[in-house]
Each structure stands twice: as structure tokens, then as C-alpha cells.
């Protein structure tokens, strides 16, 4: 039976969302085959060794001449980073003719060989029990997100880490969910007005390391994490220093090493390191499940005044931010979406600054009165 809207027939079909992969580049440049994907690569040669002054037309006419291939060049392309020409012919006989000749142009001996296309990139393995979520509403709390995902996936989320960008989170389930089904269900049902977009998560082989000395080198990090009797793992593939954030990214040959190394304490040059698994999709390397922490004031009277102001604190979206207060340690912890956490942190820091100023002023007044007496 046809569907009508305002007396006009409309067509309806099921929408099947494609599986996005935010961490994996799939363009020609990433595969190392840029510029060669638009033509067959059956009859192609690579030519190196020409002088920098030899132009493309000279190369083309030389290979088309009866002395070399005696065939038309279909396409020719210069690959600057490899300082070579790629030359396409129409037939195998042209390739065979080139391979039989000694090649010399402008007094320079050329090196020609058959082009062998690189193998297709290996499929990137994905976590079966993790998903990366985008398009989360600012109104969505951690509990609401957890309950929604549990209801839709029939699996229990055991960990939720919010990302650097607002509206993103990495979710780990106790059991692997049906990700394709979860993607479809989230497109059909919204949460707080937003349809969650579910992405698969590539398996990471990287950790982020902070807490080191300011002058600790990349070599020191590499040598430490590559010694099994010290770090518990080995097989470091690469170490990168993110200078502006003073952190190291350490990559391993075996992704399991990245998980194992985070389960123990590490001490380098007298410093206890903070080590976390690095998930590129989160957009941040320093991951702290407990939220933003800072110490408040130690004196009891100062602490009491801070708590008093906290009770009067105005938060734009209170359902998306949680403030935990530990009086014994004089600590305040803020948990929630990054932007909202930073907004609340600024307000709390302002409160602490004001309280410090008030108490300093009060102490100076008392001292002045004592001197006058």
C-alpha cells in the first residue's frame, strides 16, 4: 500500500548506517599508492637515475623511440619524493623491450625496473568489546548514557571515558556487543534529543607516559620500556615526545604489551610515572577516569568557607557534572564532560583565590591590631 503525504506518494526505505572508523586513514596517501589508483598497473615501469635538468618530454620521447620501446607512452608521472618517473605502456611487449636495453639519456645511465604495486593494507584489528561514541548530547549524564547503552546492547558497560571533544566517549563492555545492531538501534532511538553515532575502535599498541623529569629523553623511555625485567614488557617500536604537553607516546610491536605495562608501577630517574593506554579517538593522551583533581586549602576555617561557596555554586548543566569533596584530604574532584569540567574548575579556582585573599586580609588586620595594642 503506497504512503501518502499531503496527497503525494512518498518512498520509504531502511537506512543502513555504514561503519565509520575515525582512527584509520583510508585515502590513497595512507596506502602509499597515491596517484596510481586511477589506472591499471599491469604495464608500468619505474625509471631512476636521470639528471635533474632532463625534462619530462625528453624522457617520454626516448622511451617511445624505436631504439627503446617503440610504443606509445600512455601516461607518465614524476614521483618527487622518490626522484623517479612512473611510465605506463599499453602492452607487455613494450615492458620487455625496455628491460632488454641499456638506457642512457643526456649522458646519464638510467635504472628501469617493472613497477610492483604494494600489497593491499592489512585490515586493522578492532576491539570486540569497545566502541567510540560521538554526538552525545551535553544534557546526557554518564549514568543515562550507561543505562541507554545497556538497554540497547543487552551488555553491561563497565567503563566510560569521555573524550577531549565534547559529545564523545570511549565505552568498554563486559561482553562484546553486536556493534552493527547497536549502530542501527542508536540511529532509530535518540538519547536526550541526539542520535548516538557508534564507531568501532582500532586496537591500540600505544601508551602515554607522564610524571617524568623535565629532562628525561626519548632514549631513556625507550630503553626502560624495552627491558622486560624492569618494565615487564619488551618490543618497543617507537617513542614520540609531545614537547608542548611534556608527555611521551610509547608504541609496542605487540598491542598486548600496551595493556600489560599499565598494570604495574614504573619508576624512572627517581620519578614514579603515570602510564595509561592511549586511544587516539579520544583526542587526548592523558586519561584520568576520576576526573579533574586539585587540592583546596588545608586550614579548617578556609576549607569550611570553600564548602560554603560550593553549595552556592551555579552550574549551567548540573546533570552533566559531578563534584566530589573529600574533607579529610582537602580534595575536590570534578567529573563530567571536558568543557563543563573546565567551566566548573575555573569557578572553583576563583572561589579558592577569593577565600585565600579574604583570610590573608583578615590575618593582616589582626596583626595590625595587636601592634597597635
What does this structure look like?
This protein has 373 residues and is of the alpha+beta class. It has four domains: 1-24 and 124-203, RRM (RNA recognition motif) domain (Alpha-Beta Plaits, 2-Layer Sandwich); 37-114, Alpha-Beta Plaits, CATH 3.30.70; 206-278, RRM (RNA recognition motif) domain (Alpha-Beta Plaits); 292-371, Ribosomal Protein S8, Chain: A, domain 1, CATH 3.30.1370. Helices cover 29% and strands 27% of the residues. It contains ten helices and 21 strands. The chain has a four-stranded antiparallel β-sheet with strand order 4-5-3-8, covered by helices on one side. A hairpin with a 4-residue loop joins strand 20 and strand 21 (331-336). Mean pLDDT is 82; it is low at 18-37 and 285-298. This is RRM domain-containing protein.
CATH architecture of the largest domain: 2-Layer Sandwich
Computed CA radius of gyration, to the nearest angstrom: 31 Å
- CATH homology superfamily of the largest domain: RRM (RNA recognition motif) domain
Beta fraction: 25-35%
CATH top level label of the largest domain:
Alpha Beta
Poorly predicted residue ranges: 18-37, 285-298
Spatial shape: elongated
Structural class: alpha+beta
Number of strands: 21
Give the number of helices. Answer: 10
Mean pLDDT: 82
Give the number of domains: 4
Q: What level of helicity do the residues show?
A: 25-40%
End-to-end CA span = 98 Å
Largest sheet: 4 strands, antiparallel
Q: Strand arrangement, largest sheet? A: 4-5-3-8
The CATH topology of the largest domain turns out to be: Alpha-Beta Plaits
Amino acid at each position: 500500500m503506497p504512503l501518502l503525504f499531503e496527497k503525494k506518494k512518498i518512498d520509504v526505505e531502511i537506512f543502513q548506517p555504514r561503519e565509520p572508523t575515525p582512527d584509520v586513514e583510508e585515502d590513497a596517501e595512507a596506502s602509499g599508492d597515491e596517484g596510481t589508483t586511477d589506472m591499471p598497473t599491469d604495464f608500468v615501469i619505474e625509471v631512476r637515475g636521470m639528471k635533474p635538468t632532463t625534462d619530462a618530454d625528453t624522457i617520454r620521447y626516448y622511451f617511445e623511440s624505436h631504439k627503446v620501446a617503440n610504443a606509445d607512452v600512455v601516461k607518465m608521472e614524476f614521483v618527487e619524493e622518490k626522484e623517479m618517473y612512473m611510465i605506463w605502456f599499453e602492452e607487455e611487449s613494450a615492458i620487455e623491450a625496455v628491460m632488454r636495453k641499456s638506457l642512457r639519456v643526456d649522458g646519464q645511465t638510467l635504472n628501469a625496473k617493472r613497477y610492483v604495486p604494494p600489497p593491499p593494507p592489512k585490515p586493522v584489528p578492532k576491539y570486540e568489546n569497545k566502541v567510540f561514541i560521538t554526538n552525545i548530547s551535553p544534557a546526557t549524564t554518564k549514568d543515562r548514557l550507561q543505562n541507554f547503552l545497556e538497554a540497547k546492547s543487552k551488555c553491561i558497560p563497565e567503563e566510560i571515558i569521555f573524550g577531549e571533544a565534547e559529545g564523545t566517549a570511549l565505552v568498554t563492555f563486559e561482553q562484546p556487543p553486536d556493534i552493527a545492531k547497536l549502530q542501527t538501534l542508536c540511529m532509530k532511538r535518540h538519547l536526550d534529543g541526539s542520535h548516538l553515532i557508534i564507531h568501532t575502535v582500532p586496537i591500540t599498541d600505544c601508551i602515554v607516559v607522564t610524571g617524568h623529569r623535565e629532562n628525561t629523553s626519548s632514549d631513556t623511555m625507550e630503553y626502560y620500556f624495552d627491558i622486560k625485567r624492569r618494565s615487564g614488557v619488551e618490543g618497543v617500536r617507537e617513542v614520540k615526545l609531545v614537547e608542548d604537553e611534556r608527555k611521551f607516546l610509547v608504541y609496542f610491536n605487540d598491542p598486548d604489551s600496551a595493556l600489560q605495562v599499565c598494570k604495574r608501577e614504573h619508576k624512572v630517574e627517581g620519578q614514579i610515572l603515570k602510564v595509561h593506554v592511549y586511544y587516539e579517538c579520544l583526542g587526548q593522551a592523558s586519561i584520568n577516569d576520576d576526573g579533574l583533581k586539585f587540592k583546596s586549602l588545608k586550614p579548617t576555617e578556609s576549607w569550611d568557607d570553600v564548602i560554603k561557596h560550593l553549595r552556592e555554586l551555579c552550574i549551567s548543566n548540573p546533570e552533566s557534572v559531578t563534584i566530589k569533596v573529600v574533607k579529610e584530604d582537602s580534595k575536590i574532584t570534578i567529573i563530567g564532560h571536558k568543557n563543563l569540567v573546565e567551566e566548573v574548575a575555573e569557578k572553583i579556582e576563583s572561589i579558592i583565590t577569593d577565600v585565600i585573599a579574604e583570610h590573608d586580609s583578615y590575618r593582616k588586620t589582626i596583626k595590625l591590631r595587636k601592634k597597635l595594642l
